[in-house]
Design a protein that fits this description.
Homodimer. It comes from Botrimarina hoheduenensis. It is a multi-pass membrane protein. It is found in: Cell membrane; Membrane. With 464 residues, this protein is mainly α. It folds into 3 domains: 124 residues, MgtE N-terminal fold (Alpha Horseshoe), CATH 1.25.60; 103 residues, CBS-domain; 179 residues, Tetracycline Repressor, domain 2 (Orthogonal Bundle). The chain is built from 22 helices and 6 strands. Helix 4 crosses helix 6 and helix 14 crosses helix 15. The model has no long low-confidence stretch (mean pLDDT 84).
């Protein structure tokens, strides 16, 4: 948070310095103005915005983070001028307006919508009708539509007249009389043909246009934009009618949201609707407690597995020293494999049909990594067990081999399970990011103990 202007802003607000507040909102870049206002309360922020003209007010407000926007709208609507705040919301780009309304209470939304112009209200309701996470829910309808019959001069004139209303003017989309998408034309092309004003834009437009369907998953749309390096992607319906566009800044928001979701899922948590600090502590506790409970049960099963080998531990107590090593090696290798496969599924680099290749690679990886860890583990275990006592002599070199053999088997088990489980959950229609790591941890913990003690019984108890 930038505090450079905060004392001055608070003094101007307290003194009601209208000229000073107006100069602040007009003279400073909108992004910087929003940064300087981060430390202000929602009420004080509104007092500052009131001294800006409506266009500038919307511009600065748009750079507030989404939580501050929601707080400001809620507080102002309930205590001050509902009509003014309704107009501010209506002046936002359509996609930003819908995102903001989705964070507000339903009662407040019902109070704001009737105060909007009929066209804005209709557009808002239509966009809110698309399910969350679809292309339609993040698109904006403020897009340049050019008629197929236009000439270069007519297209430039249209763009000049409507530039302030459009989300972007870099690209315009050519449609027929029924609003079906026919092609796209860059503003650069129109300017380059300025000296040929009568040339039809049909001769300049690009007909092979990459599009998204309104019900497409937003993550797949983001992947498409990244793959084709697009500044914007048009959204069409099943009849190829142009509904709107998704711009690159909205795609960045989608990618950031998806990355946050994947990080939470990998940690065994469902995504938060309102962020960490704005979520109720009980909601966080329930969210985190679900998978902690699963892991707790897995730990109990591990304890039960250990209890079944009490007699073997009494005969060779040095085996206890290496239980954490065995469990962590298998769990860490399994988590690595699961993370790589989940990322591959997310990026589209791995598909369900690749299961055979994935398992072969993870088997080879497990053998390679397991052999390396086993080599280090053998010499480390041999050195750590050289202390002797009358009650229990040091294990022989052959007995110490229990540790490296177990490490090899456990790491192989971890990599194979880590590679297979995400594919299995994907096949079952369950989010692999949410399910894989907790299951890998539970399975490898129990499997590690069973493998460890089976090898120990064969090489120590059996030989003894």
């Amino acid at each position: 948070m930038n505090t450079l202007y905060l004392p001055e802003l608070r003094e101007m607000i307290a003194a009601g310095d209208a000229p000073g507040l107006r100069e602040f909102t007009e003279a400073i870049n909108a992004t910087r103005a929003a940064e300087f206002m981060e430390g202000l309360t929602a009420e004080d922020s509104w007092k500052v915005l009131l001294h800006a003209d409506p266009e500038r007010r919307v511009e600065v407000f748009a750079y507030f983070d989404e939580h501050k926007q929601a707080d400001l709208v809620t507080q102002v609507a309930r205590s001050e001028d509902v009509d003014a705040i309704s107009q501010l919301v209506a002046d936002l780009p359509a996609d930003d307006r819908v995102d903001l309304l989705n964070q507000l209470d339903d009662e407040l939304v019902e109070e704001l919508l009737p105060r909007m112009a009929q066209e804005d209200r209709r557009e808002t309701l239509r966009l809110r009708g698309f399910p969350e996470g679809t292309a339609g829910s993040v698109m904006t309808t403020e897009v340049g539509r050019l008629s197929i019959g236009m000439s270069v001069s007519e297209a430039l004139s249209f763009m000049s007249d409507h530039a302030e209303e459009l989300e972007t003017i870099y690209t315009s989309y050519v449609v027929d009389e029924e609003n079906r998408l026919l092609g796209m034309v860059a503003t650069r092309q129109l300017i380059a043909h300025y000296n040929q004003p009568n040339q039809p834009i049909a001769e300049l437009m690009q007909r092979d246009v990459v599009t998204a369907r309104a019900m497409d998953d937003q993550e797949s749309v983001a992947d498409k934009v990244a793959a084709y390096d697009l500044l914007a992607i048009p959204v069409v319906d099943d009849d190829r009618r142009l509904l709107g566009i998704i711009t690159h800044d909205d795609i960045l928001d989608v990618l950031r949201a998806e990355a946050t979701e994947d990080a939470l899922l990998a940690a065994g948590m469902a995504p938060l609707d309102h962020g960490y600090l704005r979520s109720h502590w009980f909601t966080l506790a329930c969210n985190r407690g679900m998978w902690l409970s699963v892991l707790f049960v897995a730990a109990l099963l591990t304890a039960l597995a250990l209890r079944g080998y009490e007699e073997e531990f009494q005969k060779a107590s040095w085996l206890v020293l290496f239980i954490p090593l065995v469990i962590s090696s298998g769990g860490n290798s399994g988590s690595q494999s699961a993370t790589l496969v989940i990322r591959g599924l997310t990026d589209g680099q791995v598909a369900l049909r690749d299961w055979g290749r994935v398992l072969r690679r993870e088997l080879l990886m497990g053998l390679t990594l397991g052999a390396a860890l086993a080599t280090v583990g053998y010499f480390s275990a041999y050195a750590l067990t050289r202390t002797t006592s009358e009650a229990e002599p040091a294990p022989t070199a052959l007995e110490v081999a229990v540790v490296p053999i177990t490490l090899l088997l456990v790491v192989v088990c971890g990599t194979v399970c880590g590679g297979a489980l995400p594919l299995l959950f994907q096949r079952l229609g369950v989010d692999p990011a949410l399910m894989s790591n907790p299951f890998v941890a539970g399975i490898i913990d129990i499997a590690g103990i069973v493998i460890y003690m089976t090898v120990a019984m064969a090489m120590i108890v059996g030989l003894g």
